[in-house]
Amino acid sequence: MPTQPDYSIIIPAYNEAAELPVTLAAIRSAMDTQSLSGECIVVDNNSTDATTEVAKTAGADLVVFEAINQIARARNTGAQASRGQQLIFVDADTRICAELLAETLRQLATGSCGGGAIIEFENTQQAGVLGCWGIAIWRRISTFTRTAAGSFFFCQRDAFEAVGGFDQKLYASEEVRLSRQLRNWGRAHGLSFDIITQPAARTSARKFHWYSGPKMLGWVFFMMLVPIAVRSRRFCGFWYKRPEGET
Q1: Which of 46, 70, 74, 195 gives a 20 to 30 Å CA spacing to 171?
Q2: CATH of domain 7-207
């Protein structure tokens, strides 16, 4: 029987055949430098492309299927299939380095129930002025409020299970709610929930290529003004739909 891993890296993936090879290569490279044992799980969230086939050949230890296209549900499905006591959620277009993985595992071993990392764009030119401005603001909000971005989120399994995982009633901002729940759980158990400030997790700026800056800004403000909208798949279509022909 395979040895139980110390940690599990979980990647939700909907039509991510183009992104997974680079993401998985970065993850496998980071995992190879650690003394702890780990596993890498890709959750095919009802893709219509070759996500499953690419994941199997590009370095995933396990590929599981989630039929309902919802990121909270996909992450939870990956957690249920995982065996590690430390859970690390990485988006399919986000790259991590060995130093970030090492610092994450160190924090989880020394008094942290969970946390995240600051996020940087891989391609600032693609993000443009508005994107760079927005991520700079998010960096301040994230570190000040100790709120993790979904691009890179980690936690202890017992804490994750105690609060019920990602809220499947939400189609967006599920990581914000889970951050708050884990902060409260950690406080009650003498554990911290922190944001790693160096190194950063690097993510693509593809949404700024897909959509105009004003349109993205309008969606963000709408979500802020009408927070109940995160419970509606229709209102959160920005996160689930892509322009035709885009990956």
Answers
A1: 195
A2: 3.90.550.10
